[in-house]
Amino acid sequence: MDETDGSNHARNPSHENHHPRLHRPPAPAEDIARSRKQFPEITEARVILMAMLYHLDLGVGRVVDTLKKEGMWENTLLFFLTDNGGAPAMQAVDTPLRGAKGQNYEGGIRTPFIVSWPAAFKGGRSIATPITSLDILPTGAGAGGWTGCRGN
User: Fold this and answer.
1) Roughly how many angstroms between the first and final C-alpha of the chain, as a whole number?
2) What gap in Å lies between CA 80 and CA 75, rounded to an integer?
3) In contact, 1 and 63? CB cutoff 8 Å
């Protein structure tokens, strides 16, 4: 959510697509310094990645905090996922899974996929059914009450 443009996103955060700085210049210098101190054994590229992931975590936290503050959290369907496994070039370790980013082994394609909707289901559980990002549209449409394709 952009807090600097004067818009009223907090009143209507639906369809909010929060993209952190993951594909831009690195995270703020203080976050990079914090990660460098916390992880002295990793490469500088990995330090920057850890700082950017920390920044991502803060951004998701701001979105959730705003939803709670506005009384919208309980009935908000939130998806959080990544697009691929860890990259060996970034010292990622996908153990115990075989493979990594760019490979069709589980380590390259099995990623975190978190769904939250407090009013509809309790958290803290895992589901073994395979899902992909392609499931977001029909899930969201069904959660919103759309029945257009059922039976077709």
Assistant:
1) 38
2) 16
3) yes
pTM: 0.72
Q: Which band of pLDDT confidence, cut at 50, 70 and 90, is reported for residue 7?
A: very low
Cα–Cα distance between 37 and 1 in angstroms, integer? 29
Structure tokens at 66: 């705003």
pLDDT tops 60 at residue 127: yes
CA geometry: angle at 103 spanning 90 and 51, to 5°?
Answer: 25
User: What's the helix, strand, coil split of the chain in %, to 5?
Assistant: 40, 5, 55
* 49-104 per-position pLDDT tens digit: 999 999 889 999 999 999 999 999 999 999 999 888 888 888 888 889 999 998 99
DSSP alpha helix (H) spans, the chain: 29-38, 44-69, 106-109, 136-143
> For the packed helices 44-69 and 29-38, what is the interaxial angle rounded to 10 degrees?
120
Locate 137 and state its tokens. Answer: 């549209």
